[in-house]
Design a protein that fits this description.
Layout lengths: L11 H21 L8 H13 L3 H28 L7 H18 L5 H18 L2 E2 L2 E2 L6 H17 L2 H31 L4 H14 L5
Antiparallel strand pairs: 1-2
Helix pairs in contact: 1-5, 1-7, 1-8, 2-3, 3-4, 3-5, 4-5, 4-8, 6-7
Amino acid sequence: MEIKHRQISESLALGVVLTLAGGFQDAYSYNCRGHVFANAQTGNIVLLGQNLAMGEWGTAVRYLVPLLAFIAGVYVTEWVRHLFKEYERLHWRQIVLIIEVMMLLAAGVLPQSMNVPANVLLSFACAMQVNSFRKFKGIPCATTMCIGNMRSATEMLCKYHITKDRELKRKSLYYYLIILVFAAGAAVGAVFCKILGDRAIWIGAALLLAGFFMMFIKE
């Protein structure tokens, strides 16, 4: 039996853990690393354009760098998938999680004077996660951002009211659950940023590490 059939990489439990980590990372990057969004790159694009229009070149770079890091993270993830998809000891997604954990641990060590490199690590890790874990409980779902989940949840809720198909209602509720979990992760992240400062991201790393070990569980 191939290892991918023994993984829980699409289970709701793993989705909850990774979504908690996703919300935590976004709160951390905003509260501890110069009001930059590691996950929500749309916000960074808006702020990049705004600062370019105002001639604030130095500030614009602060938002450009995470965008480039996000692109690089997606690119590297595809190589990890290609190189390790037949690897038997670990699922390639577990390798992605270990890389993420190391990046978050490194980000927690960097001082405030190195917020740009810290945001590079955070955005790179986020890109790897969003590109690797795309489906839970049989439905496409993101663990590091909410807008797509909100659209899908509401679309399915509306279709349920039209068709009375209970499967659509079930899927809609899963989406709303993931959104609530993301908000909870952001709330916890904001609290621990005040308590632990720059090292708060290590809690996010611990959540990802928990996800790594969860993937050893057979379905």
